[in-house]
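thoughts on my protein:
***
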Amino acid sequence: MSMPELAAPGWRRFLTARRLAPLLMILIVGVLVLAPLLRILLATLSPAGIEAWGAILASPMSPNLWWRPLMNTLILGLGVSAGCLLLGGFTAWLVVMTDVPGRRILGVLHTLPFMIPSFAAALAWGTLFRNGRMGGSPGFFEANGFIIPDWLAWGIVPVLIVLIAHYYSLAFTIIAAALSSVGADLVEAAQMTGARRPRIFFGIVLPVVTPALVSAASLTLAGAVANFAAPALLGLPVRMQTLSTRLFGMIEIGQAERGFVLALLLIAVSGIFLFLSDRLVSGRRAFVTVTGKGGRTRRFPLGKWRWPLFVAGFGLAMLTTIVPVVVLVASSLATQTGALFSNWTLHFWLGEGGGQIAQGTAGIFRNPVLIGALLNTLKLGVVVALITMLLGLALAHTITRNKGTVLANILSQLAFLPLLIPSIAFAAAYIALFGAPIGPLPSLYGSFTLLVMAAAAHNLPYAVQCGRSVLGQISTDLEESARLTGAGPLRRMWAIVVPLAIRGLLAGAILVFVKMVRDLSLVVLLFSATSPVLSMVAYRYAAEGFMQFANAITVLILVICLTASLVAQALQARVQKWKE
């Protein structure tokens, strides 16, 4: 090192070109992720915040504000987790480890329920099982002479069923991937020693897939704890509150500090469960299942149970995928919920309004508010997808190219922090930070900009993971050669990395787009009359009793998501072919 370099100030030696990029990325992620969390924490430490802590945790209102919502949240989280493990584990075992007919068809069908928004399943349930307790038109079954008890129409039981039907496909995907790694040599060795099927299952298969079971349980539990749509649609009418719905209610009526306290408590509940699941997996003995031989999977013959189990697996897929979609489509065409499959009309889609139907409300494609919501939704999905994937690529590039350094480790931890934060709590944190002016910056509350910022930040973990997988296929020699010729970092990124990663990035961006189109938990607090989105408008219609309009909008969301998902799968297939 030369004497001028030794004489340079310490900060100038620290800010080398190698450190500048990680520091800049840490600053960006800190503003997007860490600053809102710190702001919401500081808001709860103010005098009004201290009073809010006392009101929620230690006051006569605590049972309604905290303890009952917490109990309902835990019941839903643990119940959904257990149900998803049972259904997801059964279907994964059926598809991966047995000779059931139509395994590939069943495998595809059992991945679809997670693509359907949870509020779509909740709306379909209400269309079928709604009773007259809350007034308005009854559901299909009660209108046709069936008596629907309150516990089946409203409250924790239908919410539990809807969330299990929504999240079990996530457990199926995780467990199926683990079961496919159970080599045939392990099973055959046990069979040669005379072990029976129960002994093989509990002695070999179950210990090998335990990490996948724990992962599936923790992810489905976290999803159920953070879910807003199903408890709001099926629980709020009978005052069944969860932490997410109670948080929304506090912000909605202007008690922001209490909402912020509930947001921190919701983050703590989710974080505790994820931490315990991580400790459970990291503390167990590892099993080597992928070796140089025996990679094929051993399939157990079902004998006479092949077709009955196929019918069971196919029926489950139909009930969680096809039936809700059919109910929503039929409801959007029927003038009465009790006659879903007769007297169909396109009024709720194309009606001009002013008549006897739906109090004269125009169809969704003739309603300026709905058309504006559609355009806003598409714009939000596209903008968030592009920003998230470009930022994710930059973060992944910085982390992988500086792997092992302190700055890269800090950046990686910050980028994955949103995984621990439920969507509605993350939205509350953004309200705390940007809901009031910051110096010369105006308040962003209710603006499209705030929606984009919050959505992009919350999707960062997925974008970074996608960027890492794409960059893993690109040799660092290409960038090093360009650097030796004098190309700067931006030039190397634009001329080398982006063209080689574009197909994988587009596939990931489309999946982010789908997530934004169907998301309700994140936008429910950031929604305003000037920036409506389809999911929020559908929720408002359902809350006001206009079920046909809510179902029609939900069908439109499903069509958009399905189209985008098919495009993403086609792009991923091209990416795989290109990699080969």
About this structure: Confidence is low (pLDDT under 50) at residues 1-8, 286-295, 576-580. Residues 424 and 521 are 5 Å apart (CA to CA). DSSP finds 26 helices and no strands in the chain.
